[in-house]
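Record format v2
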Amino acid sequence: MSHDSSDIDNAIVAKLAADATLLSYCPNGVYVDEAPQGMTKFVIVSLVDELDTPVFGSRAFEDALYLIEARMLSTANGNIKAAAARIDALLDDQSLTIGSPAAQVTGYTQMAMFRESRVRMTEIDEVDPSIRWFRRGGNYRVVMDVNP
Amino acid sequence: MARLHGKTGQILIDTTPTSPVTPVALADTNAFTLDMSTDKVDVTCFGDTNKQKVVGLPDFTGTLSGFWNKVSSPTFFAVVVAQATCWLRLLPSSNESTYMFEGLAYVDGSINCSATGAVSFSGKFDAAGNWVMRP
């Protein structure tokens, strides 16, 4: 069966973007690596690290670590606490399914998805120090078995 | 002759090893070792200028490992639990499938389950009959 690692990234984004509660906190949406200019309340998904584990003759599973966090401009009056909690509720020990009806990522069987560590920081803009970005979320490990 | 990478290695097992044996691939395995060390007996005598030894028979013992798979791993552990013999065939490369070590074996097994990793298993084996290297 064919498999595409990017489909795992897409499934995470799709799962978060499909949640109305999370979007009520982060109405600008969910993006990989960077959001479009002008956005003030959004979620960023970044691949931090990934390791493929082989068995004889094939790849056994893909073990990826994603940094997933809500980002909010300090002046946007967002609820970053609730956004981070919602991300955790959606991902920690949950199923990574995509589409409707919910289906596993094509070519994979989920082994595990859980938060490995928490992330919370305030970023000061390099150009205008009066601008601050709140960032909160976590590092999530997603382990997917590659279907033979 | 090309050197080989171990990624195409293969472990095959026949849990009911009656002739002719029909070993099948054990899925989700990732390593094996085979130690064919021979016994060395010291026969050093007075007057020898260095130690001298004579060799006995070779041992055929080894290890194997992989990830737990509910379809194939129970096949292996059924032999372990039954303390029965099985036929093991070890291929350094499935791309050169005529080159192998094989023979009757006793197997031991263990499972490693951690909250932070994949469920894996490992095993040890000892010869239960005459092993051969082919071709």
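Chain B has one domain: 7-37+53-134.
The interface with chain A takes residues 6-11, 27-30, 66-67, 94, 118 of chain B (CB under 8 Å).
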